[in-house]
Structure formats: structure tokens, C-alpha cells
């Protein structure tokens, strides 16, 4: 079984993907990490993020060991990721790795932006996880404050809106709901309720 989970930043897809993978004993790939690693490597090497040739070269030589990089989860890496993710050269270099991962036994949960539309269009289960920008910004702000960071809600909201616009507006594999995806709006749900709703979607499809 392949479960494809797509949606905008901070909608809860990462947590849901991990819990679904654990529940169904499937492999899990957070595909955002691939783009984050490429953005991070380019920034560390002083390369121009907007240069498709340089970005494509980094993507083609990406080593899975690079995914262990310490600061890939933060906001800055997310920002770098969405800038390199616009290049078709980058996206095409990552297709084979993601598809091979998905095909490996016993199956996998992949989360990202284009899993149901471009990477695994034949996935048995597709879930588009979303929430209002305000709810996502509130969650992200609370998460960062819980870690002791002094962050401003309005600024986080602006970053989320900017990332949504870039991810949805790019011409190469933009963020969009696959026609056969079930929509899971987590705006009014806590993580346990969202997980139950996701299980119900999976059970209805398999
Ligand atoms: O999901 P995450 O926040 O880690 O993704 C970081 C960025 O990487 C996204 O904003 C998006 O631009 C890009 N990305 C993508 N396709 C994916 C996963 C992530 O374009 N499958």
C-alpha cells in the first residue's frame, strides 16, 4: 500500500504521515527533507538558489546521508527549500529516488506537495491535508514559543502565506489537490481526531 499525503506547510501532514506509517507498519519518507537539504547545501556553498543549473547539479548528487543535517527542520531551511523546489531540474532529479522508496516492501507513506499528483499518481490512498492559514500560523507560533523562541504571530502568518503562494503558483508540479484525493481539513481538529479521520479515509479506500 502507498499512502500519498500532500498539503501546505504546517497543516499537520508530517505528524499524520508518521502516525499512519507506524499504525500500518509502512516505510515513511518526508519528501520536504530532500528539498530542504538541497537548499541548505546551496546556501552553505554560497550558490545562487535561483540558478536552475547549479540547483539541478546539487539535486543530482544529493546523498541520503545529507538528510541527517542538523538544521533542516527549521524555518530558514523551509524557505530555502521552497526556492529551490521551483526548478524543474531539481524536481526531476528527485523523482526516481522517491518512486523507488515508495515501491519498496511493505509499502510507504510519503508526504509532500506533489506525491498524489506527480510522484505516485497511482497511490491507493491520497489525502490532502489542509487547514486555514490562521490556524497553521497559530500552531507554528505556539510550537516555536514552546521551544523558547520569541516569535511574532503576524510574521509567521505572512511567511505561511508567502510559502503557500510560491508552492501553489510555480509551474513545475505545484501544490494542488489530486482529483481523487480525500480532503482532510484539520482546522478544527486536534492531532488525535485528525489521525482518526485519516484512518477512516485509509480504511474506506483499501
Ligand atoms: O514540507 P516541508 O515544509 O518540509 O517542505 C519544504 C518546501 O519544500 C515546501 O515549501 C515546498 O516548496 C518544497 N517541497 C516540494 N515538494 C515536495 C515536498 C516539499 O516542492 N514533495
What does the secondary structure layout of this molecule look like, with pairings?
Blueprint: E1 2-6, H1 13-24, E2 27-30, H2 32-44, H3 52-60, H4 75-84, H5 88-103, E3 108-112, H6 115-119, E4 125-130, H7 133-146, H8 153-169, E5 182-185, H9 191-205
Parallel strand pairs: 1-3, 1-4, 2-3, 4-5
Cytidine-5'-monophosphate (C5P) binds next to helix 2, helix 4 and helix 8.
List keywords for this structure.
binds cytidine-5'-monophosphate; 5-stranded parallel β-sheet; 206 residues; alpha/beta; 9 helices; Rossmann fold
SS-derived structural category: alpha/beta
State the domain count. Answer: 1
- Ligand types: cytidine-5'-monophosphate
Within the largest sheet, what's the order of strands?
2-3-1-4-5
N-to-C SSE series?
EHEHHHHEHEHHEH
Account of the 3D structure:
There is one protein chain. The chain is α/β, with parallel strands linked by helices and about 210 residues long. The chain has one domain: Rossmann fold, CATH 3.40.50. It is about 55% helix and about 10% strand. It contains nine helices and five strands; from the N terminus they run βαβααααβαβααβα. The radius of gyration is 16 Å and the shape is globular. The chain starts with a strand and ends with a helix. Cytidine-5'-monophosphate (C5P) binds next to helix 2, helix 4 and helix 8.
Amino acid at each position: 500500500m502507498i499512502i500519498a499525503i500532500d498539503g501546505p506547510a504546517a497543516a499537520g501532514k508530517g505528524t499524520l504521515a508518521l502516525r499512519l506509517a507506524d499504525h500500518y507498519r509502512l516505510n515513511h519518507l518526508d519528501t520536504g527533507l530532500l528539498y530542504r537539504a538541497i537548499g541548505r547545501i546551496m546556501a552553505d556553498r554560497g550558490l545562487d538558489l535561483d540558478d536552475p543549473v547549479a540547483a539541478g547539479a546539487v539535486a543530482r548528487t544529493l546523498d541520503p546521508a545529507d538528510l541527517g543535517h542538523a538544521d533542516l527542520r527549521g524555518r530558514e531551511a523551509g524557505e530555502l527549500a521552497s526556492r529551490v523546489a521551483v526548478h524543474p531540474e531539481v524536481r526531476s532529479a528527485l523523482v526516481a529516488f522517491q518512486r523507488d522508496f515508495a515501491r519498496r516492501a511493505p509499502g510507504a507513506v510519503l508526504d509532500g506537495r506533489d506525491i498524489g499528483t506527480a510522484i505516485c499518481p497511482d497511490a491507493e490512498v491520497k489525502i490532502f491535508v489542509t487547514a486555514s492559514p490562521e490556524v497553521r500560523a497559530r500552531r507554528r507560533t505556539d510550537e516555536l514559543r514552546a521551544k523558547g523562541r520569541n516569535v511574532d504571530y503576524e510574521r509567521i502568518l505572512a511567511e505561511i502565506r508567502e510559502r503557500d503562494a510560491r508552492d501553489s503558483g510555480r509551474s513545475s508540479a505545484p501544490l494542488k489537490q489530486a482529483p481523487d484525493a480525500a480532503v482532510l481539513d484539520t482546522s478544527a481538529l486536534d492531532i488525535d481526531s485528525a489521525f482518526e479521520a485519516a484512518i477512516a479515509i485509509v480504511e474506506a479506500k483499501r
